[in-house]
Design goal:
Blueprint lengths: L2 H12 L1 H40 L4 E7 L3 H5 L4 E14 L10 E7 L1 H6 L4 E4 L7 E5 L1 H4 L10 E11 L4 E3 L10 E17 L13 E7 L1 H8 L11 E8 L1 H5 L1 H9 L3 H7 L8 H12 L4 E4 L1 H7 L6 H35 L1 H9 L4 H42 L13 H27 L3 H6 L15 H20 L1 H37 L5 E6 L6 H10 L3 E14 L6 H11 L7 E8 L1 H11 L8 E4 L1 E8 L4 E8 L8 E8 L1 H4 L22 H4 L3 E13 L12 E6 H9 L13 E8 L2 H13 L8 E6 H44 L1 H9 L4 H39 L11 H27 L3 H6 L4
Parallel strand pairs: 3-9, 5-8, 14-20, 15-19
Antiparallel strand pairs: 1-10, 1-11, 2-3, 2-10, 4-8, 5-9, 6-7, 6-8, 12-21, 12-22, 13-14, 13-21, 15-20, 16-17, 18-19
Helix pairs in contact: 1-14, 2-11, 2-12, 2-14, 2-15, 2-26, 8-9, 12-13, 12-15, 12-26, 14-15, 14-26, 17-28, 18-26, 18-28, 18-29, 26-29, 28-29
Length: 934
């Protein structure tokens, strides 16, 4: 070790406090960078594992591969590994309630397929021989066939055959109903050994006609073990699931095109969404795919998650955000750590001058500063890296605890060596850039400048003029404090900047979090129910019976069941205001037709609604909701504003002619009354054009208005369509006597129910248990919305974001605090001779303490005067940006965050100054003045 390195090490040991503070800054910067890359790596790994479970561990699926061609995949250098499945055929399922999915599709595979396919067991185990089978859970929930683990089942397995085209139908083709039959059936008996989740889209298409049953294949196992040749079963057809190598993954389109035998450039262009194909190219591509060697399915999400370069859409946003955050960390860290080295240079300026006077070159002085940075980095970077990994592990556990129950993906902790190396490189770069400027500055110091030590203070006398009020209020101590702040403005600039950055970030993020929770609260506060149920069924639903089910579940405080039918009214009697609005909206000089939604309510709900609306004799007709709120464009403010309008001139006793469509196939069907007809369609705004009105057989019916109100029943707030409500008896009476030839009513109804439950979670669980195993509701698909849970989930999401945001603030604040401690404490030590001199000429302890306190006040006020208004401005701009999407947000400054920020800054600066001052007050005045090393 040469002399300069020994001298550098000795200086670090002698200045332990500054060394420790600088190392802490490096540790925090490194920890933040390593935590960032570890979290990104963990998120990517978690998404990859989730996608593997959801769709399978493969990149491309090749269908209709002959057994004799399997070796081409096994020996392809672009394919890392494969697993195979064999289609055994289809079997009719007796008692299946899903008319579009009447089959079991029996698939065979081996250990590799069970391990890497998307066969996620719920109960039991995987099949181990050809007499065992695993069935999917949705066979019971969707098909209403209850088969348990341990049951014996017999299947007549054959091929689907289309008699109209005289061809075999493949597994993923939708059920053709009357057109298809099963041929070449073979009876096979299996023992059910497991129940699994529904396989992913890559293995069972959502429109597939069969539920996927999986058994074991001795043939595939023998081929994989090398005990059987592919050639012995040359005619057998397989499905091959392949994983590409990383190199092949970057050129997946070219590799896939080569395997299936199509034009590579054309295939690549077709799979690139940013490139538009001509009509000729599209036709040529379709022809090539029709003649391709194999049918393919690409596991696109898994490919995007695993293929980092080139960065695709799925992770582009994540990596962009991570890069921005890393840049912020590096810039903040460089600024703060650089200040530590600048202070070190200031402390040792006389030393560097003496070294230069005895022959030390600029290069040696630069090397001394860089050596100091390297020594600090050797200690700080490993500790920071381990701290970052530990922080990431804790954060992953916190995230999983907060997101339990609403996030589909469990975040898995994962460290990547390449990611950690990147974090270390960034940390080294941070230290290097921090030290480079200071090293250059130290090398430029001449011996004479170093001995005089006047280069640090450059200020004109005019700038040191002190306002008279400071002297009058605080005396000589206040004047000295003010002059010192002005004279050492460059030194204190780093402290002020650090406080400003932390203050602005804290105020803005605090406002964002409070605004986010406020918006979530407002969005759900408008809802007057907490359980919404949409129902889909091919036949009519008895709403009275269903309402009894809802009311019979414990905890139902209020409920409503409705069946909505769409009608159109040709040129209704608009009010002047609403008519003008409609004409402007649809750009039509004539009166436009409008969509009316007639909702049939259960009797109890209808009677309650009529009573609340103050309408008597409501059973005699329909209740019209005649007020609605719309977004109207205001030309003066160039914004959309909400405006409530009265819609029509109708009053109680008036009649509205409502039209609807009946199609030819429905009118001739004996079951038309059971719901097989179709109603007319409309756009989202409710406007019905002439083409739609005239489509099919036009029917009309006269609806009498029983009353007009501006109230709506639960669940119907915010509807923009015209609403009419009737009870079931009144609605049926419109067709009861076949008057006006309307013996066929509108067939399709949209069924919905709304419940105000005391405990929404318990109510939902009970409802699902009541309906899941009930054969009466076996043909109804229920879609339950739990608004209480949705609100909790959204708040949990913002809480999760808050954990990351506030975590970032805390670490950046800690880096800033170490910088502030370094600056203020070192500054106080460097001025110890000045303080000793002042005390030697008569400054009392009280005046000394007051002077130091005033300096802390001046620094705090200067930082807060910049930071607080800047934080308010940025938070206001954030509110303005949010209001471009929704005008409901009214800006209110985050007063609590501002007050907390002011208190913390003042206390922090005061505490640091007081600690430094306590040490100085005990110094010997004469010894301090004689000390030439300060």
């Amino acid at each position: 070790m040469n002399l300069m390195k020994k001298l550098t090490l000795k200086n670090l040991k002698l200045n332990r406090k500054r060394t420790i503070v600088t190392i802490v800054g490096i540790i925090l910067a490194t920890a933040l960078l390593s935590a960032l890359v570890t979290l990104v790596s963990s998120f990517q790994y978690s998404m990859i594992e989730y996608q593997k479970q959801k769709d399978g561990d493969f990149h491309v699926k090749f269908s209709n591969v002959k057994m004799s061609e399997l070796s081409e995949f096994k020996n392809n250098r672009n394919i890392e590994s494969t697993f195979e499945t064999m289609g055994m055929g289809f079997a009719k399922l007796d008692g299946c309630k899903n008319e579009d999915k009447p089959y079991a599709y029996v698939m065979a595979t081996d250990e590799a397929g069970f391990e890497r396919g998307c066969f996620n067991l719920i109960e039991g185990r995987m099949a181990k021989n050809e007499d065992e089978i695993v069935i999917p859970r949705h066979l019971r929930t969707n098909g209403r066939i209850d088969i348990k683990v341990g049951d014996e089942i017999t299947l007549d397995i054959g091929k689907r055959y289309d008699s109209s085209t005289e061809s075999v139908i493949w597994e993923n083709i939708a059920y053709e109903h009357e057109a298809e039959t099963l041929t070449d059936t073979v009876t096979k008996q299996y023992k059910v050994v497991g129940i699994m989740e529904r396989p992913g889209y890559g293995m069972e298409d959502y429109s597939a006609a069969g539920y996927t049953f999986v058994t074991y294949s001795d043939e595939l196992a023998a081929i994989d073990n090398g005990t059987k040749s592919e050639a012995s079963e040359a005619d057998t057809t397989l499905t091959v699931y392949s994983r590409y190598t990383q190199k092949a993954l970057r050129n997946k389109d070219a590799v896939t095109a080569d395997i299936i035998g199509v034009d590579e450039k054309l295939f690549e262009k077709a799979n690139n969404s940013s490139v538009e194909m001509s009509a000729e190219e599209s036709d040529r591509f379709l022809k090539e795919m029709e003649n391709a060697k194999y049918d393919i399915y690409m596991n696109g999400y898994l490919i995007n998650y695993e293929c980092v370069f080139p960065i695709d859409g799925s992770f582009k946003a994540l990596f962009t955000v991570a890069a921005v955050v890393a840049l912020i960390i590096i810039l903040t860290s460089v600024y703060c750590i650089k200040n530590s080295f600048n202070i070190s240079i200031t402390e040792k300026i006389r030393q560097y001058g003496m070294l230069a006077s005895v022959g030390a070159t600029r290069r040696q002085i630069k090397s001394s500063v860089k050596t100091e940075a390297a020594m600090l980095g050797v200690v700080g970077i490993p500790v920071g890296t381990m701290s970052g990994i530990l922080a990431s592990l804790i954060l992953v556990k916190v995230v999983n605890a907060l997101s339990a129950g609403w996030l589909n993906v469990a975040l898995s902790f994962h460290t990547s060596l390449s990611a950690l190396i990147l974090a270390v490189i960034l940390s080294i770069a941070t230290i290097y850039f921090s030290a480079t400027g200071s090293a250059r500055r130290a090398a430029k110091v001449t011996p004479l400048e170093a001995i005089r030590n006047t280069k640090e203070i450059k200020i004109k006398s005019a700038k040191l003029k002190t306002p008279a009020i400071i002297g009058r209020i605080w005396g000589i101590g206040g004047v000295i404090s003010y002059k010192n702040i002005k004279r050492n403005n460059k030194k204190y600039r780093t402290t002020v900047t650090s406080i400003v950055i932390c203050s602005v970030t804290f105020i803005v993020i605090s406002y964002f979090m409070s605004m986010a929770f406020s918006v979530v609260g407002m969005s759900y506060a408008a809802a007057d129910y907490n359980i919404g149920i949409n129902m889909s069924c091919k036949k009519d639903i008895d709403i009275e019976k269903f309402s009894k089910l809802l009311s019979g579940i414990e905890g139902a405080e209020d409920y409503l069941v409705g069946a909505g039918y769409d009608f159109d009214v040709d040129k209704p009697e608009y009010t002047k205001e609403y008519g003008e609005y409609c004409r402007q909206l649809y750009d039509d000089s004539e009166d436009v037709s409008q969509m009316f939604l007639i909702t049939v309510l259960d009797d109890k709900s209808y009677d309650k609604y009529a009573s609340d609306a103050g309408i008597k004799n409501a059973a005699a007709g329909a209740i019209l909701v005649n007020k609605c709120t719309f977004d109207v464009y205001n030309e003066n403010s160039s914004k959309y504003v909400k405006k409530e309008m009265e819609l029509y001139k109708y009053k109680a006793g008036d009649t509205i002619e409502c039209g609807y469509n009946v199609y030819d196939d429905a009118s001739s069907d004996d079951n038309a009354a059971e719901g097989d007809t179709e109603s007319s369609t409309e756009d989202n705004s409710g406007y019905v054009d002439e083409e739609t009105i005239n489509n099919g057989v036009r029917k009309t019916v006269d609806v009498t208005i029983a009353g007009v109100t501006d109230k709506v029943p639960i669940g119907y707030k915010g509807y923009s369509n015209t609403l009419l409500f009737m009870n079931q008896k009144g609605f049926e009476s419109l067709w009861g006597d076949g008057k006006n030839g309307n013996e066929i009513k509108p067939g399709y109804a949209s069924y919905s129910a709304y419940v105000v439950a005391e405990n929404a979670d318990e109510y939902q669980d009970t409802f699902e248990k009541e309906t899941e195993g009930n054969p009466e509701y076996s043909q109804i698909s229920f879609y339950v919305s739990n608004l209480d849970k949705q609100m909790r989930d959204e708040k949990s999401l913002f809480t999760l974001l808050g954990v990351f945001a506030y975590g970032l603030i805390v670490v950046i604040a800690l880096i800033g605090i170490t910088n502030i401690i370094n600056t203020l404490s070192t500054g106080m030590e460097l001025r110890s001779r000045e303080f000793a001199t002042l005390r030697s000429i008569g400054m009392t302890d009280k005046q000394f303490v007051g002077m130091v306190r005033l300096e802390s006040v001046f620094i705090s006020v200067k930082a807060l005067v910049i930071g607080v208004p800047l934080g308010i401005l940025i938070s206001y701009l954030l509110c303005v940006m949010m209001n471009r999407m929704d005008d409901a947000i009214i800006y209110e400054p985050p007063y609590k965050a501002i007050i907390l920020c002011i208190v913390v800054v003042i206390m922090l600066i005061y505490a640091i100054m007081k600690l430094s001052m306590t040490k100085l007050r005990h110094n010997n005045i004469i010894e301090t003045i004689k000390n030439e090393n300060l």
